[in-house]
Amino acid sequence: MTLDAWFIIGTIVGLASTVICVVAAVLKKKPNDVTLLGLAAVELFIVVYAIGSLVRVLGGQNMVGEAWEFWGYMFTAAMLPVAGFYWAMMERTHWSNYVMGAVGVTVVVMLARMAQIWYGTTMAAQALQPLYLHLMQQGIG
User: Exposure pattern of 29-59 as b/e (b: 16+ CB <10 Å)?
Assistant: First the structure.
């Protein structure tokens, strides 16, 4: 997988949000400004990423994978923080922080998949290629 700046920044924001929310949950804190701002940071990043991706596409860059799949992931990733916020407002207990914590790490996984769609590479395929070539040379594959 190609690690571009979008993925790196998104990973930092998503994991920071997850850590903030899970620590608050472990401390049995109710959703508060800090946890909600962590969730808002994830949403803000996704909105900026969507705009940046649109600019890249309009600028002539093409993604290797299917565009509908990329934009589907983008839309879903944008809806997760909204759903987490709604959950936190409806259930004002420390358990909501666990739900909001799951949003950050889920968005990171979705960013990895969006990078795979954009660049057309997978980390697993790149990692296993030397093993595959070795097996082919041995006549095993």
Answer: eebeeebbebbebbbebbeebeeebeeeeee
